[in-house]
Design brief:
Shape: globular
Helix content: 55-70%
Number of domains: 1
């Protein structure tokens, strides 16, 4: 692709970061797939309902449920009663899940340092400002 559109140019660094984080987690004893990560990274601090996770991850409730089942078997999440609705369950991150999140954050920070070295401080801040401005019209969860 000689002249990629902006969407592709935004996706390439995201994919690079995601692949490196997933590889590092797997190498560190936290096996997880990209699909599982897409769901798990959307769990709120107090927990989230399955439907909320499915919507935020742009997947079906059935697929989100399948991924949550896998995450639960691996010890990253747990299901707990929802104090606001006795019929509902919340998906919450476990201690092991928080360990994996911390490990991922270390890799993320290292990648951002690499990008900052490549772009320079001013270039990095301009990119961040432009992306934050673009988020205003593209992120329904902002």
């Amino acid at each position: 692709m000689a002249d990629p559109n902006l969407g592709v140019l935004l996706f390439i660094p995201y994919r690079h970061m995601e692949q490196r984080i997933i590889a590092a987690l797997n190498a560190s004893g936290y096996p997880i797939t990209a699909a599982q990560a897409h769901v798990s990274q959307r769990i709120g601090d107090a927990g989230s309902r399955l439907g909320e996770l499915a919507e935020a991850a742009s997947t079906t409730k059935q697929n989100a449920g399948f991924l949550v089942d896998q995450l639960e078997k691996q010890g990253y999440v747990e299901r707990a009663p929802d104090p606001g609705d006795a019929r509902a369950r919340l998906i919450r991150t476990t201690a092991r899940g928080r360990e994996a999140v911390a490990a991922a954050a270390e890799v993320e920070a290292a990648i951002e340092r690499e990008w900052r070295e490549h772009l320079g401080a001013e270039g990095t801040e301009r990119l961040r400002a432009a992306l934050l401005k673009l988020r205003e019209i593209t992120d329904p969860y902002a």
